[in-house]
């Protein structure tokens, strides 16, 4: 018993209409790194929010036993006082404050009415050293990179005397090198007796760093795997997450003829909109043919979204140069409107932020990019609009009680379908799909893949940007690899593999680093 | 759905109408029915005509994302000043009206340009406008009052003693024209409603249950006929009502049926998504604020007609009446939500509270306190009910 620092017993948490956690048991050994994995919506974050007191005692049922005593946290401060510190996925740092100010925000040194700045910065420096940062604690947060910001978050947690550190997707916005540094730091802490819980989607990182892995699915604990006892392979963990073997994850696409070049981009250059001397896209040339699905693979921050958005009517970046040809004719696209009229569509990766109007019904969202399809002389034909929305609801099998339902009430997969419907109704020849299956469950993913196959069967061209290599390999006819704004590789479906693509990314990564030194 | 949630959604959907009924009931009780006397009903309309017009324009701005226009009070004053001066110089009245609307539109466009194309925050742009046009009105009038003596102008825009649509049927003791107009309006409304519903059903599209449509229509017809009869018992249709109804009809149509209206809501709902859908969002901002200027011009016309003069102090805190009506009427402070009829109900609620308290003899300062509390309560309700939903 005593070797467990934390035990959560029979935790059940309900939201209106949903049982987010269903009798979850979760125990963490003292001085270990415990990973919590599961698909989106499996209940990982909810469980951690219960632990941290964000969902106060009484709003869930079950017991939290920490250091041998039952805890009833009513707010985050309560759990922090006990040494439980959560580091959220979205960085919670104020950009225009210094590292030191951020680290002690809400935990100010000195008295309430006289902050002791000397002490603040001295303490901050101490903790920065522990996490291996050499920056001055007076440096502003906005002036350091994301990787270092994540380290500051950890230093902040240490400054709160953390004994149990919870990291929610700590590496999701970090590049490979920064992620590695962070994971190694966690291992270092472990040697000194710190206990950590890490939530992550990146299975390879989890099996590298964790001592135990607990798998959640649909709000239930499925199993806990222990290093040295159980199989820690990626397949084994994924099987636990999805509950079945992953076969036929991608629908077959056969007999679709690949035609002429539909989109040809040559020597495309884009600079960062704020840091004007930073080149985000560097001399990129590529093409897509009729009936073809072309993938863009690369790490986070490789410039894939930036490339797509700059092509789509210069929605991103400055000082853009290069040429775009659609069906062999050069086009100049200076606004999204012009891009749409030229037959291009960009389906955003951020469907909630940039894609949909969550407070509006499916009808409004479906017609937004092509409202003139249902208008006459500036007047909207509401009946026709309903009919259009209904047609796409049936075609894409969007699950909703009514097309007058607000999009915000739909699940992620169904929202994605509405977003696709919106762009399909704009009737483009070339669709750029940016992370089309992000944050949706396996079943809905399969349906999205079928829609993509239907689109190319109609003679359209699809560009698919995806961070999930298996998806790119399973769906694309051709794959470009992008790294640091440049195309560093092009593979045909038949000679592409996960290893080859990763190797290409990593080799150029280190080559780029050598160049810089 | 359980009965409880059904009642809840009903209350949420019709909160402000229920509030209006309750408040009217309260004042009917406290004033021994005086508030529903024909003259007072006429007054509620004439006194608040400018609020209805300004609130309609303000809604377009608020829809784009909770953006407000603080300058409207000063613009009302300045446009009124221009009109008074022009008519003082014996300019043709219709020409003067056109110039006034034009000046309003120009001022609107001036502010809209900075807001839409230079991205100056609306709050600051219109705060500047508030100072500029108040100051200019003072400069032109040199701090004095200028009378508006053009009788025809005053009558047509709802001022003076005889600001009613003449009864062409010459009814005895009751205004027959007023009755006829009210009756026709109800008839047209009924025909349109049922034709729409039936054609929708025929096309197999979603529509409300027929009995619900019928109940709604019956209530609306009853209310309209009640007020028509009340107005007819007094002096008939106030001219101001004609202008208000015109504005309300036009803008209800624009917001619910046209692409411009749709884009206003879309921007407030998600500006980036709207931009990436190929919509020129700057143009829509430009429309909202230019249009606000023009409607402020119309409100200026109504104001100087009703008060038969222009003064440098006119229009003060009109912007607050308009903004308040919008939020009370269900517009979201974050944009993207709100309707013209809702805003009109918000303005009516304020108007009823105003006149009710005046009849009761409540001190004007306390009236402000009550109005402030009503505004706060409305927004609290909005925020809390949204939180519960999510």
C-alpha termini separation of chain B? 17 Å
List the quaternary state of the chains: heterodimer
What overall form of chain B do the CA principal axes indicate? globular
Shape of chain A: globular
- What is the β-strand count of chain A? 24
The CATH architecture name of the largest domain in chain A reads 3-Layer(aba) Sandwich
Describe the sheet with the most strands of chain A.
6 strands, mixed
Walk me through what this model shows.
The complex is a heterodimer of chains A (517) and B (390). With 517 residues, chain A is an alpha/beta fold. Chain A has 4 domains: 164 residues, Rossmann fold (3-Layer(aba) Sandwich); 72 residues, no CATH class; 175 residues, 3-Layer(aba) Sandwich (Rossmann fold); 77 residues, no CATH class. In chain A, 34% of the residues lie in helices and 27% in strands. In chain A, the strands form 6 sheets. Chain A has a 6-stranded mixed sheet with strand order 6-9-10-3-11-12, sandwiched between helices. A 6-stranded mixed sheet of chain A has the order 18-21-22-15-23-24, sandwiched between helices. In chain A, strands 2-1-4-5 form a 4-stranded antiparallel sheet, with helices on one face. In chain A, strand 13 and strand 14 form a beta hairpin. Chain A is globular. Chain A starts with a strand and ends with a helix. In chain A, 43% of the residues are buried. With 390 residues, chain B is mainly alpha-helical. Chain B folds into 2 domains: 292 residues, ABC transporter involved in vitamin B12 uptake, BtuC, CATH 1.10.3470; 74 residues, no CATH class. Chain B has 16 helices and 2 strands. In chain B, strands 1-2 form a two-stranded antiparallel sheet. In chain B, helix 4 packs parallel to helix 6 and helix 15 runs antiparallel to helix 16. The radius of gyration of chain B is 21 Å and the shape is globular. At the A-B interface, helix 10, helix 11, strand 20 and helix 13 of A face helix 11 and helix 12 of B.
């Amino acid at each position: 018993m005593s070797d467990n620092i934390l035990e959560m017993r029979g935790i059940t948490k309900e939201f209106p209409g949903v049982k987010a956690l269903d009798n979850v048991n979760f125990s963490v050994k003292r001085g270990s790194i415990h990973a919590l994995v599961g698909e989106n919506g499996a209940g990982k974050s909810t469980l951690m929010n219960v632990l941290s007191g964000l969902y106060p005692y009484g709003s869930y049922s079950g017991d939290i036993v920490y250091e041998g005593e039952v805890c009833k946290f009513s707010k985050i401060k309560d759990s922090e006082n006990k040494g439980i510190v959560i580091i959220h996925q979205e960085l919670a740092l104020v950009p225009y404050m210094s590292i030191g100010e951020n680290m002690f925000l809400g935990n100010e040194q000195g008295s309430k009415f006289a902050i002791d700045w000397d002490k603040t910065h001295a303490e901050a420096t101490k903790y920065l050293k522990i996490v291996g940062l050499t920056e001055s604690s007076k440096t502003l947060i906005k002036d350091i990179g994301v990787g270092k910001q994540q380290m500051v978050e950890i230093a902040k947690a240490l400054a709160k005397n953390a004994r149990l550190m919870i990291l929610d997707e700590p590496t999701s916005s970090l590049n490979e090198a920064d992620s590695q540094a962070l994971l190694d730091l966690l291992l270092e802490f472990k040697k000194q007796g710190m206990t950590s819980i890490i939530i992550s989607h990146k299975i390879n990182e989890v099996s590298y760093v964790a001592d135990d892995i607990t798998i959640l699915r649909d709000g239930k604990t499925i199993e806990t795997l222990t290093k040295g006892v159980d199989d820690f392979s990626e397949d084994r963990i994924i099987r636990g997450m999805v509950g079945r073997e992953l076969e036929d994850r991608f629908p077959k696409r056969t007999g679709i003829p690949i035609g002429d070049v539909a989109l040809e981009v040559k020597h495309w250059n884009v600079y960062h909109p704020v840091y004007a001397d930073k080149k985000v896209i560097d001399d990129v040339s590529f093409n897509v043919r009729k009936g073809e699905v072309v993938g863009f693979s690369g790490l986070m921050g490789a410039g894939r979204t930036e490339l797509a958005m700059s092509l789509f009517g210069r929605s991103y970046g400055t000082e853009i140069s290069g040429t775009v040809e659609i069906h062999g004719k050069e086009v100049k696209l200076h606004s999204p409107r012009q891009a749409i009229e030229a037959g291009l569509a960009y389906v955003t990766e951020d469907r909630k932020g940039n894609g949909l109007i969550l407070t509006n019904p499916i009808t409004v969202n479906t017609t937004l990019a092509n409202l003139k399809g249902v208008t006459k002389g500036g007047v909207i034909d509401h009946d026709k609009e309903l009919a259009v929305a209904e047609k796409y609801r049936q075609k894409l099998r969007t699950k909703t009680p009514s097309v007058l339902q607000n999009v915000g009430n739909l699940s992620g997969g169904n929202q994605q379908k509405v977003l696709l419907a919106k762009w399909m109704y704009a009737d483009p020849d070339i669709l750029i799909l940016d992370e089309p299956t992000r944050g949706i469950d396996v079943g809905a993913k399969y349906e999205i893949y079928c829609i993509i196959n239907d689109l190319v069967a109609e003679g359209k061209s699809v560009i698919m940007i995806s961070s999930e290599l298996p998806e790119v390999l399973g769906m694309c006819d051709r794959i470009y690899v992008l790294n640091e704004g440049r195309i560093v590789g092009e593979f045909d479906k038949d000679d592409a593999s996960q290893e080859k693509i990763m190797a290409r990314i990593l080799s150029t990564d280190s080559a780029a680093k050598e160049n810089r030194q | 759905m359980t009965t409880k949630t059904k009642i809840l959604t009903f209350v949420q959907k019709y909160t402000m109408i229920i509030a209006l009924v309750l408040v009217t009931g309260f004042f009917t009780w406290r004033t021994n029915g005086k508030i529903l006397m024909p003259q007072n009903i006429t007054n509620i309309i004439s006194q608040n005509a400018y609020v209805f017009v300004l609130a309609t324009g303000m809604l377009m701005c608020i829809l784009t994302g909770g953006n407000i226009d603080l300058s409207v009070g000063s613009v009302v004053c300045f446009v009124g000043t221009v009109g008074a001066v022009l008519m003082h110089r014996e300019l043709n009245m219709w020409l003067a009206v056109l110039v006034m609307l034009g000046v309003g539109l120009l001022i609107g466009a001036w502010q809209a340009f900075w807001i839409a194309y230079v991205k100056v925050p609306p709050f600051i742009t219109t705060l500047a406008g508030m100072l500029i046009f108040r100051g200019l009105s003072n400069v032109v009038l040199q701090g004095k009052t200028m009378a508006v003596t053009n009788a025809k102008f005053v009558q047509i825009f709802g001022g003076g003693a005889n600001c009613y649509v003449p009864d062409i049927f010459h009814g005895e003791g009751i205004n027959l024209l007023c009755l006829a107009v009210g009756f026709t309006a109800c008839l047209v409304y009924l025909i349109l409603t049922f034709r729409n519903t039936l054609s929708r059903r025929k096309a197999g599209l979603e529509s409300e249950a027929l009995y619900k449509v019928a109940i709604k229509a019956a209530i609306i017809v009853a209310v309209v006929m009640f007020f028509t009869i009340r107005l007819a018992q007094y002096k008939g249709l106030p001219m101001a009502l004609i202008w208000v109804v015109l504005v309300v009809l036009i803008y209800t149509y624009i917001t619910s049926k046209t692409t411009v209206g749709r884009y206003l809501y879309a921007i407030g709902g998600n500006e980036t998504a709207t931009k990436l859908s190929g919509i020129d969002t700057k143009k829509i901002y430009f429309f909202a604020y230019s249009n606000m200027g023009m409607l402020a011009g119309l409100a200026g016309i109504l104001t100087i007609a009703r008060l038969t003069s222009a003064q440098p102090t006119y229009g003060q805190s009109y912007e607050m009446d308009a903004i308040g009506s919008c939020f009370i009427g269900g517009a979201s402070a974050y944009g993207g939500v709100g309707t013209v009829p809702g805003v009109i109900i918000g303005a009516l609620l304020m108007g009823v509270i105003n006149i009710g308290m005046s009849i009761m003899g409540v001190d004007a300062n306390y009236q402000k306190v009550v109005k402030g509390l009503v505004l706060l309560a409305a927004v609290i309700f909005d925020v809390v009910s949204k939180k519960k939903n999510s």
